[in-house]
Amino acid sequence: MTATLSSEVAAAADRIRPYVRRTPVLRAELDGRPLVLKLEQLQRTGSFKLRGALNVLLSGPRPDQVVTASGGNHGIGVATAAAILGLPATVYAPVSIPESKARRIEEAGARLVRVGTTYAEAATAAHEVTNARYVEAYNDPTVIAGQGTVAAEIVEDAPGVDAIAVAVGGGGLAAGITLGSGGRTTVAVEPEHCSCLNHALAAGHPVDAEVNSIASSALGATRVGQVPFEILTGHDVRPVLVTDDEILAARDLLWQEFRLAVEPAAAVPFAAWLAGRVPGELPCLVICGANADWTP
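and the corresponding structure tokens:
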């Protein structure tokens, strides 16, 4: 499965290229330490999620309509992908969805349905819709291949990078990074109290985990996806935890040093790097999104 998915990253890049931005990399130095930032918050929709959503909707027969469940960024990505392709879309979200993300889903033209208190409850409701193409948030090889195009761009634009650090929610982006990175180490970073991958690694299989973090609106999966888990456990992946205080300090420093205004989830890899938990002589940190109303 892994070899097939690796080739699918290249196919996904060709498929989605007309619709996505090739986001830049920023080479920098901080406290004498070199690093590379992949500025995926500059992607259309403000996060990487558009990549996987487009890859799904451009693969296979054209659906009549689209449905998904999301805590925010995935819903914005699916709503925008559907709009680009002229498809009606409905996004189910927990009632706790941040208003900034809810607004962007509706501005993209999708119908927003708030249901339940968790992503899992919203997903259960969305799966009851039978006459639409369901776009998985992370537990789908086609979604993962789309997200892997982030790593393919990093490798082409900054070939000296030897590790790529990425925030983990359900695991789709981390799995895609792993497949598209040409064998580089993936550093899978999670908030301490929003760490379904760490719980799965401890148990040997995906299990439910608590969701309680400043970054939970983007990283709030209660259980890592089975498909991402199989990919991540089959490769050189380094799991790392950070605290909410470290995340907020990293978010603030991204603004102070680089004038990057991002949501907490996007600061998670930077938090790990600041704490010395990211290996490599030249690591790349994926700045994954900026869909929050926070301003410096």
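(Above: one complete record from the training split.) The mean pLDDT is 93.
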